Amino acid sequence: MENINLIIPEITLFLGICLALMVGVFFKNSFSIVMKLSIIILLGVIYLILTNWGGEQKIFLDSFKNDKFSDYFKILILVSSIFIFISADQFIKDKKLNKFEYPIIIMFSILGMFFMLSANDLILFYLGLELQSLALYVLASIDRDNIISSEAGIKYFVLSALSSGLLLYGCSLLYGFTGSTNFDEIGVSLITQNTGAIFAMVFILVGLAFKVSAVPFHMWTPDVYQGAPTSITNFFAVVPKAVGLAIIIRFMDLPFKNIIGEWQTIIIFISIASMILGSVAAIGQKNIKRLLAYSSISHMGYALAGVATGTVSGYTSTIIYITIYIIMNMGTFACLYLMKTDGKYSEKIEDLSGLSKERPMLAFSFLILFFSLAGIPPLGGFFAKFFVFMSVIESEMYALAIIGLLTTVISAFYYLKVIKIIYFDDNKVKFDDVRNLSIKATIFLSCLFLSLYFISPSIIGSLLNELFI
Amino acid sequence: MTFPILSTIIFLPLLGALFIFISNKKNESSSAIYISIFTSMANLLLTFFLWYSFDKSFAGFQFIEEKNWISGLIKFKLGIDGISILFIVLTAFITPICIISCIISVKKRLNEFLIAILILETFMIGVFCSLDLIIFYLFFEAGLIPMFLIIGIWGGPRKIYSAYKFFLFTLLGSVLMLAAIIFIYWAVGTTDYTEIYKLKIAREYQYLLWLGFFSSFAVKTPMWPVHTWLPDAHVEAPTAGSVILAAILLKMAGYGFLRFSLGMFPIASEFFTPLVFALSIIAIIYTSLVALMQDDMKKLIAYSSVAHMGFVTLGIFTFNKQGIEGSMFQMISHGIISAALFLCVGVLYDRTGSRMIKSFGGVVNYLPNFSLIFIIFVLGALGLPGTTGFIGEFLVLLGAFKINYLVAILASTGVVLCAAYMLWMAKRVVFGNANNAVVTKLKDINFLEATILIVLCLVSIIFGFYPEPLLNTMDISVNGIIQNHQNELTVNLLNK
Asked: How many CB contacts within 8 angstroms connect chain A with chain B?
C-alpha cells in the first residue's frame, strides 16, 4: 500500500475545489461565499502541509516526491494566493469580475503547480504543467468583454502552447535518449556522454524559460501584464514565476545535474539578457503594469544568476531572491489597487504625480517598495541581490556579477523615475479615498518586512539551509 | 555587558525620525522641531561624552560592539578609533546646525525634511562606526535615499536633473565596490575589517580590488573626471542639503580612502599613488580655474570643494604623518568652513531669492554683522593662518614636499588660485556699491542665524589657533596606518 498521507494536501485541495464548485453552482450570487470558502481551503492546505513538514519520500513508482523544497514553495504560493485573494477583493468587485469561477480557476492552477513541484517524473510534471497553464489561459482572458484582456489571453495561449509543445518535445527526446522518465534515473544515465539528451535539455529549458518570462522568451509578459486585470497580473507576476524558478532548480539539480557544463552557459546567457533587456526596455514605459512587467523580467535575470552557479548556495540565494521578490510585488500590486480616480482604476504612471502631497502614506509605501525593487540598501531588495551576487562571485563568475551590478544602476533609473513623479512633480489627479483594510494591511506588512529585513537578513537563509540535500 | 554607546549614537536620530513620523500632522511642525532639535542635541552631547571617554593612547579600535547578523557569514561590528571619532563628532555637530537652518529657511513640508535629515544622520554616523565592510556599504549606500529626496523635493529649478545625477553617479561607483567587497569575502574568508587587517589580502588581488573601492570613493570625493555631479547637486540642493553634502557626505570618501584603501591594499595604494596625485593636482588647478569664472556663489563654493578635496586625497596618498594628519584636518576644516559658507549664501538667498554674484555688491553697508562673519569664512576657506583651513593645507603641502617637489609646487598654486576666486567673490558681493536696489532694503541676520554662524566661526578659529585636541586624538591611529603601510611595503620588497 502506498503511503497516501503524502498527497493529502493535494487531495484536500482537489476535493475543496469540487466543493467550492458545487457551492458556486447551486447558490445564487455565490462569489463572496466561494471566495471565503477558497480562503478557508487554502488555509487548511497550509495547515496540512505544515503538520506533515519535512522528510523526503517518494510514492507512485517514485513519480511523486514530497520534500522540504516542494513544501516550502507550496507554502509560499498558498500564502501569496491568500494575500492576492483578500487584497484584490475590492478590485474584483469594482471590475465586475466577481464570478465564482475566479477563485476556483486560481485554485486549479495552484493544484497544477503542486504536482509540478512534487513531480519526480516527466509525465507527472507535464500533466501538472498543463493543468496550471490551462487555468492561466482562462485567467488571462477572464475579463472577456474587454478587448485588451482577450488579446492578452490569446497571446498568452498561443505562445504558451508553443512553449509547452517544445517542452513536451524535449521530454520525449529525453525519454528516447535515456530510456526513462524518472528524474533520478535520467540523472544517473546522464553521467555518460549523451548528445541527444543535451538537445532535450535545451528544449526543456526553452519551455521553462518561457514560464518565468526570461529573455528571449519574454515577449508575452508586457502585453499580458497590461491586458489582464490587475488582480490577475498580480497572480501572474508572483505565483507562476516562483513555481517556474523552482522547477528550473529542480531540473538542474536532479536530471541535469551531470551536464552542468552544458546548461550553465545557456542560463548565464538568459540571465544576462534578461537583466539587460528588463532594465533598458522599462525606461520608456508609461503604463505602470508594463513597467512592472519589464521589472519582473530583469528580476528573473537576477534570480537565474543564482541558478547559473549550479551550487547549493546559488540555489538557496535564488529561493531567497524569489521570496523577497514575491513580498515586494505583493506590496506593489496592492498599491495599484489604491490607484482609483472617480471609481476607475488608473494605470498611467503620470497619474501618480504629486501623490506625496495628497496621500503621504501611500507615497511613502511606493517609496519603500520601489527603492527595494531597485535594490538600494538597507531595504529588503538589496539583500536579495546581495545573496545572489555572493554566490555568483563564490563560483568565480565575475563577468556575470559585474554585468548584473551594472544593470542594477540602469534599472535604478526607471524606479527613480516613478519616485520622482510621486515626490517631485505637482499634483494632477486626485485619487479616491479607498477604505479597505485588507489592501492596506498587505501594503503595511510588505513595507514593514522590507524595511526591517536588515535587522536579521539571514532569516530566510537559515530557514532554507535545511531545505537542501 | 557595557552600554552600547555606538549603537545608541547611530540609532537615536532614527528613533527621533520615527517619533516625528508618528506625530506627523499637516501644517503643524512645532513638535517636529522640538523632537529633532532635542534628538540631535542629545546625540551631540553623547558624542562629546564619547570623545571625552575615548582613550587617546590606544592604537586599536575601541567601544567595539559585536552581534551576529547574517548567521555564519557576517557580524554586525562597530568600533571607533582616533580617525572615526572626529568624523562622528563632526557629523553630530553639523546636524543640529542643519536642522536650525532648515527651521529658518524651509517653508514647505518641514516635517519630512527633518525626518530625512535625522535618518541621514543615522546613516552617516553608521558609515564612520562600522568595522565590517558590508555594514559600511549598507550605510554608505543607504544615505543616497534621503539625500535624493532632499535634493529632489526641496531643491531649485533643475532639481530633478541634479538628483538623478547625484544618485546614479554614486550608485554606479558603489556597485563596483560591492563587487570588490564580496570578492574580499571569498578571498579572505571574512569582511570584518580588523580581521582583514591582520590576515592581509594577497598582492595579486590588491590592484583590482583597490580600483573597485577607488571607483566608489572617487565619485564620492569627488575627484576630477567624475566630479560633475557635485556642482549640480550643490547648486540645486536646499541650504541644509548643501551643508550636509559638503560637510559630511564628501568626507565619507576621504575616510574610506584612509581606512579601507590604505589599510587593506597598501601595495596597490603605493602603486596607484601617481594616478591619485595626478587627479588631485588636476582637481586643484582645474577646478580652481573653473571656480574663478562662476557667476553663482553656490557653484563657486562647490568647485572650491572639489579643489579642497583634491588637497585631501593628495595628503592621504603621501603616506607620511604630516600629509595624512593634514588631510584629516583639512576634511574637518572644510566640513566647518564650507558648511558655514553655504549657510551664508543661504542667508542671502532667503532674503533675495538670488545666488548670483552680480546681483549683490555693497552688502557690507546694509548687513554689517553678516559681512563680518562671511569675510571670516572666506578667509578661512583660502587658508588664512589662524583658521583651521591654514593648518590643513599647510600640513598637506608639508607632507607633499617630502615626497615630490613637483606635486607640492603645483598644489601650492592651488592656494593662490583659491585666494583669487574667494577674494574676488567677496569683493564683488560684500564690498563696492550696491548694484541692486533689493540689497539696500535687506535686514541683517537674525538671532538664530547669528548663533549658528558664530558657533561655526568660533570652532574654526579655536582649532585654527589650537589644533592640539584634534591632532592629539588622531595621532596614534594615523601612526598605526603609516606603520602598517611601511611594514607591508618592506614585506613585499623582501618577497620579491
From this structure: 87
